[in-house]
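Quiz preparation item.
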């Protein structure tokens, strides 16, 4: 197992304080939150307390928080659920969206909607002029992620949302990567719906949320007992929800320190990369403080990831949800990066517990592995 973890955009370790909050709900508490006896009421109180913690972390009201099992479910819920009450017009998603946005949008074409992509520029930013032009056609929904999971590039969501609203469209943002890394305020973003997730912020897997403007009509994906105000049926995962709430509270308290700390590590890392003649993507625009996405000419990203893993470092070749694919990053292709360069991409995403010493050691190992792999490539040629 790798001894140094540099893949925090994929998932994060459960915080010890979050674990302490969860354990009683795994060991002792057994009430169903919908039950009317004392056990059930106790569980319901825990869920509602967590709901308030989640709302506080993203500048929303508790009544706007709908718990789901994961970010993928929340994104599918947003796309399919909001479109169910909208006319069959076009659905605009950015060309760099996660598949759990683009695939639901494509699936809705069977119901008469038209899925189209919004172009991004060479830095990975949504092209506002292109969006403005596209919005001249009837549009039901616009979905653009707050921060990209691969490049870390941050979008102008409030401005995009205003354009969508002016055109009469609903606006959704996938803010999974932004929670805990950026100041996050649902109202300020001006969106109708926003997705966040627990396991990206040192909470447990199995909990996420769709933050929803209460004035928006939305059709549930799951029908059953009517939990979550009738919008997401199924017995609540109390332990995971409690952990999500605790993680949100910690993330809110630590966000400023996290941003300063991880950006210092990223800057140190990218200064070291300058000597290695690599290409860093999105470095000319505002990015998540912890994220660096780069490519080495002539070396496959997956090959370098495996080589670094053998040296004790966990990094990624792209999105964790599509890392088993041999195709080049669709994000980089959308940015106009040549496929051969895109195949060499490697993502490093730092966390609060990483150190400058780890980064320094990693740079030395990375330099050696790049040299070794290039020598092997030369011999093979």
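Solution:
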């Amino acid at each position: 197992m790798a001894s140094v973890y540099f893949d925090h955009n994929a998932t994060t370790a459960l915080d010890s304080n979050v674990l302490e909050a969860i354990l009683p709900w795994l060991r002792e508490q057994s009430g169903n939150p919908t039950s009317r006896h004392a056990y059930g009421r106790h569980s319901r109180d825990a869920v509602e307390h967590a709901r308030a913690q989640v709302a506080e972390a993203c500048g929303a009201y508790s009544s706007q928080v709908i718990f789901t099992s994961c970010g993928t479910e929340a994104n599918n819920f947003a796309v399919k659920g909001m479109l169910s009450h909208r006319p069959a017009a076009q659905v605009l998603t950015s060309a760099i969206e996660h598949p759990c946005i683009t695939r639901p949008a494509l699936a809705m074409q069977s119901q008469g909607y038209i899925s189209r992509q919004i172009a991004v520029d060479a830095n990975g930013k949504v092209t506002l002029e292109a969006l403005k032009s596209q919005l001249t056609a009837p549009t039901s929904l616009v979905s653009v992620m707050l921060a990209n999971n691969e490049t870390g590039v941050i979008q102008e969501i409030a401005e995009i949302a205003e354009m969508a609203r002016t055109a009469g469209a609903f606006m959704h943002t996938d803010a999974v990567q932004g929670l805990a890394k950026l100041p996050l305020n649902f109202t300020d973003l001006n969106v109708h719906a926003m997705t966040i997730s627990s396991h990206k912020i040192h909470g447990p897997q199995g909990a996420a949320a769709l933050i929803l403007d209460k004035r928006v009509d939305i059709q549930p994906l799951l029908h059953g007992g009517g939990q979550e105000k009738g919008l997401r049926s199924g017995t609540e995962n109390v332990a995971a929800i409690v952990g999500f709430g605790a993680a949100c509270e910690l993330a809110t308290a630590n966000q400023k320190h996290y941003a300063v700390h991880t950006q210092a590590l990223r800057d140190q890392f990218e200064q070291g990369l300058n000597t290695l003649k690599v290409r860093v993507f999105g470095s000319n625009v505002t990015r998540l403080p912890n994220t660096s996405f780069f490519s080495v000419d002539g070396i496959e990203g997956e090959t370098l990831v495996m080589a670094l893993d053998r040296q004790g470092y966990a990094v990624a070749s792209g999105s964790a949800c599509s890392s088993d694919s041999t195709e080049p990053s669709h994000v980089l292709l959308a940015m106009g990066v040549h496929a051969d360069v895109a195949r060499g991409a490697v993502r490093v995403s730092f966390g609060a517990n990483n150190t400058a010493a780890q980064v320094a050691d990693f740079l030395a190992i990375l330099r050696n592995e790049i040299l070794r792999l290039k020598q092997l490539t030369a011999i093979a040629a």
